[in-house]
Specification:
heterotrimer, A mainly alpha (250), B mainly alpha (57), C mainly alpha (551), B: mainly alpha, 0% strand, C: 551 residues, mainly alpha, 2 domains, two-stranded antiparallel sheet, 18 helices
Chain lengths: 250, 57, 551
Amino acid sequence: MPEFFHRKLERSAIGFVLAIIAAASVGGIVEIAPLFTIDETVEEAPDMRVYTPLELSGRNIYVREGCYACHSQMIRTLRDEVERYGPYSLAVESQYDRPMLWGSKRTGPDLARVGGKYSDFWHVAHLINPRDVVPESNMPAYAFLARNRLRTDDLSGHLRAQRALGVPYTDEMIENAGRDAYGQAAPDSAAAPGVTERYGPATTVSAFDGVATQLTEMDALVAYLQVLGRLTDAAYRDTAAPEEAPDPAE
Amino acid sequence: MFDISHETLVAFSKSWGLFYLMGFFLCVVVYAFWPSNRKRFDRAKTSILERDDKPWQ
Amino acid sequence: MNATDRMIGRLTSGERQAALILCGLTALSGAALGLAGRNDVVGWHGLLMLLFAGGFGFLLMTRLDMAEPTEDRGASYYDDPIKAGIVLAMAWAVFGMFMGVWVAAQLAWPDLHFDNGWSTFGRLRPTHTTGVIFGFGGNALIATSFHVVQRTSRARLAGQVSPWFVLLGYNLFCLLAVTGYLLGITQSKEYAEAEWYADLWLVVVWVTYFVLYLRTIARRREPHIYVANWYFMAFIVVVAILHIVNNLALPISWGHAKSYTIWPGVQDAMVQWWYGHNAVAFFLTAGFLGMLYYYLPVRAQRPIFSYRLSILSFWGITFFYMWAGSHHLHYTALPHWVQTLGMTFSVMLLVPSWASAGNALLTLNGAWHRVRDDATLRFMMAAAVFYGLSTFEGSFLAIRPVNALSHYTDWTVGHVHAGALGWVALITFGSLYTLVPTLWKRERMYSAALVEVHFWLSIAGTLIYVFAMWNSGIIQGLMWRTYTEDGALAYSFVDSLVAMYPYYIARAFGGLLFLIGAVVGCYNMWMTVRAVPQATSRTGDQPVAAAVPGE
C-alpha cells in the first residue's frame, strides 16, 4: 500500500510537494507552536518600560549598521558569562525587541548589559575612533554618526507600527515622538520634562553626544547603548544560579 | 488556538512529534525497499548516463 | 549577431511582447515604490527597479520586429537561461568573495574602511554573505536545476519567458539586497537582511520558479522523477516556506524602507534560527545535493552507488533538519526543552548526511584513477569529503556542552566556511566545469591545467581558513572561561581579541587564495566559450576530459 501511494504521489508532482511539506513543516510547527503560548511561562516584569523614541532610533541605527554581526545581546546561563557581563538574559527582557538582537558572534563583547557601564563621553569617544580608547580594538570608526542629523519626522510612524504589533505605546507617546526624541537629548529644553513624564522618571535625559543644540545619530545610538539591560530589573531578582561551564573533557 | 495552554502544546509536541517521525520513516523505508520498485530505481540510476541530449518527443 | 540577438531571436513575437509587458509591470512597480518613497532611501531602490526593468525592456523593444524563430523548439533543451545563470553565478562569486576578503582584512586591519557608513564591517558583511550565498549559490542552483530537470525529465522547460523572469527577477532581488545594505537598508535578521519590498518581490519570483519547475516535471517522459529533482524541489518548496514565515513584517508605510518583524524577542529568535538553520539545510545543502546526485555520476560515468540510500537520506534530511534550528540558542532564554530537542535532532542528522557523503564517495569507488586525473571530478569528490566533515562538525557543535565553548566564537565561522567553501563552492565549481563545455558544445574546457590550479587554490584556501578559525575559536572560547587560582576571570575581553589577530590575518589570506581560484575559473570558462573549437559530434552530457591513460 505505501508503495502504491508513493508512486501516485510521485506521478503527480504536486503530491510529492505535499509530502515534502508534510515532512518538513511538522518539525517547525512542533518546535515553534509552543512558543506562541510562551508568555504563560515568561517571567513577570511589571516594571518594564518601552523604548523612548530616541532609544528606538538608536536601536534602528544599531540595526542599520549591522552591529549584531560582532556584538551579542544575550548573556548565557554560564558562570563565566554572568561574571563577565552581568546576570544572564531573560526572555522577558527582549519582549519589545523587533528584531531581537541576540546575535551569534562575539568579535566584540556582549552588550546586553552595557547600559550605565561607561559614561556618555566614553561612548562618543569610542564610537568616533575605538582605538583612541581601546588601542587593541578592531571595531570600525563611526565618526560619521556625529555628523548625521537624526531623522525625526517619521518617528510617530515607527511608534504606530510598533503599537500595531503589540508594544504598549500610548496615543500621547505617538503624537509627541519627534518632540520627545529631541527633548531626551536636550536636558535644558522645554521638551525635556515631557520625556520623563511619559516614559518614567528612570529615563535618562542627557546631551548624549555632548552637544545639546543638535540632535544627531550619535545621540540616538548612545541613548540606546545606555539603556541596554536597564528596561527592567527582572534579571536581578530571584533567578536561579548560573551553570558551571561544562567541561567536554570530563 | 491561543487559549490552549502551554503545557498541553508542549506535551503534544513531545509525544505526537515522535510518533509522526517513526510513522513517516516506516513509510519511507517500505517505499525504498519495496521489491517491485527495484526496477524503477535501477532504470533511474542509469538513465542519466545515456548520451542523447534531446528531449523525447 | 550577438548573444542577446540570438537569445531574444529564439522567442516568438508573442513571447517578446509578454516579456516586454513583464518588464513594464516591474518598471511600474519600481516607479510606484520610488514615488511613494521619494523622501526615504527606498526611493533609490524604486529607481533601481525602474532602471533594471527598463534596461531589459529596451533590449526587447529594439528587437520586437526580429524574425520569428524557425527551429523546432520542442526538439531541443532550453539552455539560454542556464548559460546566463552560469555567467551571473561566476560574477557574483567574484563579487561576494572579494567582499569576504575585504571584511576579513578589516578584522585584522580595522582602518581598511573609509570615513563613511557604507564601507564599515557591519554593512559590508551582509554583502559578502548575500553575495556568495544568494548571488553565487542561488544563481548556480537556478542554472543547474534548469539543466538537471530538463535532462532527467527528457523534456524542455515549460516556458520561454518564465525561466528568464525567474533568473533575472532573482538577480534583481540580490541587487536590491546588496545595494540596500550599503545604503543602510537591512532588517538585521541574519541571512535574511533584505527589507520587506525585496522580500515580497522574491516571493513573486519564487512562486514562478516553483510553478515552472513543477510544470516541467509534469511534462517528463521518464516515468520516475530522478532523485536530484527531489532535492531541488525540496529546496524550492521549503525555502519558500522559510522565507515567508521569517520575513513577516509590518512596514512603517508604503514609502518607507523600514519595517518591524511581527515576531518579538524570544519568538523572533526561534523563528530566525529555524529559518537560519534551514536556509543552510535547504538552500546550501538540499539544492547542492541535487547537483551532486546528477553531476557526480555523469562526470564519473558511473551510476550512483545506491539509489535507495539516496531516497532514505533525502527524507531523513527533509525531516530532521527542521527540528535542529534551536541548537543555535543553547544556554539562552529559549526554553530548555526546545534546546534539547534541537540538539537531539542535530545529532541524528549525521545519519542521513553521512549517507549522502558515503553514497557519493562509494560511487567513485573503482574510478579513483579518474579522480586522480580529472580535477573537475576531484572538485566533486573533495566536496563530498568536506560535506561529510562539516556535517559531523555541525552535529558535534550542536551538543550543548561543546556549544558552550564554541558559540559566539570563530569556531562557528570556521564551521560555516568548511561547509560553504569546502562543500557548496567546490561542488558548484565541479558542476560548472562539467556543464560549461556541454552547454556551449565545446570539446573540453580551455585549460585542464587551470582547472588544476583552481582546485589546489580552493583546497589550500579552505584549509588555511578553516584551521585558522578552529584555532582562534577554541583559543577565544577557552580564554573567556579561564579562571585564575583565586577564582577570578583570567583574561579580559581585549586579551582574547589580541590573541585573534594572527588568525585573522591567516584567514584573510586563505580567503584571498579562494578568490584567486574563482577568478582563474572565470577566465578559464570565458576562454572555453571564446577559444575552444565547437565539438564536432553531439557529445551530450558525457565528460569531456582528455582520454585517460590506462583506460
